[in-house]
Design brief:
The structure is a single chain. The protein is an alpha/beta fold. Helix content is about 20%, strand content about 15%. β4, α4 and β5 form a beta-alpha-beta unit. α4 packs antiparallel against α7 and α8 crosses α11. The chain is globular, with a radius of gyration of 29 Å. The two termini are about 30 Å apart.
Length: about 550
């Protein structure tokens, strides 16, 4: 029941995922769906989106038939697509080749420069046989050019002409009255990208923050700084916030003038229903639109009209300054695979080394030796497993065939299911573990006295000798922890392997922090949980704009 006094209080509105993440997810999903490789982020701020775009894809797009001939053409009736299809997710990975960021704030751009920086080189270490690392960086298979620029959008930058996609995320509402007229002519005219993605706060939604009969004084926020309206905005730097109708009018007019089709919607629905039932009327907190260039319109004429309009506005602004420029080089083995026989042998050796009878396809892929031997094409790994006499590709889980390849596993044929114990389990006093040449009363430990336990029993430098039993197993090495349980081979079923693999991946610093679903994969496409899905931190998460 709603109390009368409640109309004097601002309502609490919750979003999940948080609104800034929903905006980024909307952007990234379109980039993936349209297989976009070249992006300009206008108003990039601290570079949160740039950071995501600079992450390498885990593998290349499918190889041409000259590299890997399909076994048979796929048909609509296939329960599971024939090899070598692997990149079969509804929303595929990003494969960026060129990324630019532009902003006017030097303070924000200092962070953006870090966002596109080259990764630190990993220190080469000599690994023990069977030792596995779950925090390896992802190898890069495609070269990426990344640049950060300082300057205003009203200035022409020739490097941005014919950009594949331009993103303006929460930018347009910050433009001053003199700069706003250059927004569409520059971005859709001079640069004429194939896609133009825009997000902006919906003023219509702001009514959701107060009861219908609440006085304006209840709404906390920022009065329109231009004085054109009596509206209360969400941010102190917003020069305007459009209603649904105003946003629709601008989108339609802009698309018509510059020869674009559009898809318009809103995102950011509150978790809780509005007590007054206004959810459908108010829609989402953020208005979004995706412009798609009409190819029948001559882009050269678009560009000429855009340049003429910018010249008429007669801006006296400084040229853009390149603050950082980096080439992220691809692995030298990219697109240079070994033979399928050698790839299969490498997988066999790795599984024997790890004492695993079953491994997920993607788990073995992130072993650098395996991925490098495949030249970055995971389809070659799948085909090599299919053709190897030592391996078996398991496309089912608990007898149920899985169409999505991220659930497939590899079986090592002849892997020992129940090997002899290499040492006794805790509490096991069986005589089977007594050495045949042991003589009672003899040996290096027979003279041990309780008083000897006062000091360390380890050699010099051993810091583990005096730790308590409560410390538990060291989970920093997921591969070796299973060795402590008295079995040289992992004997888990395929279902248990999948569950165990999810747990291992969740511990990884590179993947586990990617989002709310990072605790497990299940049937979720792999790219939905990587750093290329947009779940990283954002300094803007304290605003609703």
């Amino acid at each position: 029941m709603i109390q009368e006094s409640d109309n004097m209080q601002e309502l609490k509105v919750h979003f999940y995922p948080e609104l800034f993440l929903q905006r980024r997810i909307w952007i990234l999903n379109i980039l993936r769906k349209e297989s976009i490789t070249r992006v300009l982020d206008v108003g990039c701020g601290e570079g949160q989106l740039l950071s995501v775009l600079c992450q390498p894809a885990p593998w290349l797009t499918p190889p041409p038939s000259s590299v890997l001939t399909p076994i048979e053409p796929p048909t609509p009736n296939d329960v599971i697509p024939p090899s070598p299809v692997y990149n079969d997710d509804d929303i595929p990975n990003l494969h960026m080749t060129e990324v630019h960021g532009l902003d006017v704030s030097s303070e924000d751009l200092a962070f953006a420069v870090d966002a596109i920086a080259l990764p630190k080189e990993e220190i080469e270490t000599i690994e023990s046989p069977g030792r596995r690392w779950y925090n390896r960086g992802v190898q890069r298979w495609e070269e990426l050019s990344a640049k950060v620029w300082k300057g205003g959008l009203e200035v022409v930058n020739e490097e941005f002409v014919d950009m594949e996609c331009i993103v303006a995320m929460e930018v347009i509402e910050h433009l001053t009255e003199d700069i706003f007229p250059a927004f569409a002519p520059m971005l859709l005219g001079v640069y004429h990208p194939k896609f133009f993605l825009v997000t902006t706060p919906s003023y219509t939604f702001n009514a959701r923050f107060t009861p219908p009969d609440a006085p304006k004084s209840v709404r906390r926020g920022f009065p329109d700084p231009t004085g054109r309206t009596d509206r209360i905005f969400r941010h102190n730097d917003h020069k305007f916030e459009w209603t649904k109708e105003e946003f629709v009018a601008w989108c339609d007019e802009t698309a018509k003038e510059w020869g674009y089709d559009l898809e318009r919607t809103s995102i950011g629905r509150p978790l809780d229903l509005d007590p007054w039932g206004r959810d459908e009327e108010l829609e989402g907190a953020t208005s979004v639109v995706a412009f798609r260039r009409r190819e029948e319109v001559d882009s050269k004429k678009r560009e000429e009209r855009g340049r003429a309009r910018i010249q008429e506005l007669a801006f006296n602004s400084q040229p853009h300054e390149a603050l950082a420029s980096h080439k992220h080089l691809a692995n030298s083995a990219s697109m240079k695979p070994a033979s399928l026989e050698k790839i299969g042998d490498c997988v066999k050796v790795k599984m024997e080394e790890f004492r695993e009878a079953f491994m997920r396809v993607e788990e073995i892929w992130f072993e650098p030796d395996v991925a490098t031997m495949c030249g970055g094409w995971i389809e070659l790994l799948v085909r090599a497993v299919e053709e190897s006499p030592h391996l078996n590709l398991k496309r089912d889980v608990d007898g149920v065939l899985k169409k999505h390849s991220n659930m497939w596993s590899i079986e090592l044929i002849g892997g020992v299911a129940n090997p002899s114990h290499l040492w006794p389990a805790e509490g096991d006093t069986s005589s089977e573990f007594i050495p045949v040449d042991w003589t009672p009363g003899e040996g290096p430990h027979e003279g041990w006295e309780e008083s000897d336990a006062d000091g360390s029993t380890g050699v010099e430098g051993d810091v583990s000798a005096n730790t308590s039993d409560d410390d538990g197993e060291d989970e920093s090495d997921g591969g070796t922890s299973r060795w402590k349980k008295g079995s040289g081979w992992n004997t888990l079923s395929v279902e248990e392997v999948n569950e165990r693999t999810v747990s291992d991946w969740a511990r990884s610093g590179d993947w586990g922090a990617s989002g709310s679903g990072a605790g497990g994969w299940g049937d979720v496409p792999h790219s939905a949980n990587s750093s290329t899905a947009g779940w990283d931190g954002d300094e803007s998460d304290d605003t609703t704009g």
